[in-house]
């Protein structure tokens, strides 16, 4: 299994490497072509020399150019002498090119898989960048060619009157003539041949380098695959040995756990029995307390009933007392009325006697007047009249005083009776209010005591049921936990048995 996996990974890496090498070779060859074209164009564009400078330059040849092939290139901007490179370059070079130095430095490093993947990514990015630069150069060259064409078209317009245009026309004719010379054609052929040779050499070297790197990469991957396979075999053997050791260890541990669980189960059964006994005792104690509280409550209710009965007796007593007071007051009123009638009778008798006495006195006065009339003069008659008026005045005064005294006595009697009745009513109202207040206070205390007793009873019932529910819930949870533990132990035992069976196979 491990060897197949390594072979698949090696194949994928080889494919990726080959694709990378192909793309890199294409990019390098294209880059070389464009560099050669750029150099050639720069050489052509920078060769803008006049004809008289060509002769002077030919006289001043340097010593290191002796025996070397020189190609003269004439453009519309000037003329240049190009040095053709040797077909057999000097093998003993003083310095290395920058690319060769970079290649040697890169090959001298020990590359890991991660470094190679990183290098592959960088090369892909570089190729993309080179492609972009190549496209930019192509676009730039196209623009330059377009500008040249437009410039040449502008220069073709006839301007005979202008001397500058005549000079330009002569220059173009001279350049066209120079381009038809054999030396220029030979230079172009040499440039094309050099370009093809350079491209072919670069492609051959790149192909050889790709083949060498591909062989090295295959050898390295095969070596890694063998090492990984040996390592996987060793790890597999160690893993099997570790599994056998762990299996023995787990079997011993499971036996030990089973023994411990049996002991814990026995202790749990004993604890549950003790809790059941304690719960029964607690329920008995709670029942006794409930009975005692019920007895105390009944005694309080009995006392309250006795208090109510006593209050009712006191109320009846006060009612009887009030009735007796009213009866006594009525008797007093009757006695007062009887005495009043007796006084009125006595006064009537006295008035009648006084009237009779007055009539007798009047008769005597009349008789005396008659005698005086006969015997006395007019003076005596006036005296008689004056005395009679005084007697009548005195009689009216006495009658008035008696009437005033009688009226005052009646008013005093009415006031005394009214005050007595008001006092009796006030005392009766006060007693009734006191009785009602005492009764209300007593009933309020009874109601509060009853509410408190109901709340205490309700709280006791709630606590009792809550305690019972908690005990039942704890027992249920322990039973479920015990069942889950038993199932887990069974599963572990089955797993151990299955593992031993597989190991024996």
UniProtKB/TrEMBL annotation:
Compositionally skewed regions (Basic residues) per UniProt: 14-23
Coiled coil segments of this chain: 113-190, 216-306, 338-408
Domain Trichohyalin-plectin-homology: 178-505
Main location, first listed in the record: other
Residue stretches of biased makeup (Polar residues): 1-13
Keyword terms, alphabetized: Cell projection, Cilium, Coiled coil, Flagellum
Entry superkingdom: Eukaryota
The protein's name in its UniProt record: Cilia- and flagella-associated protein 45
Organism: Clunio marinus
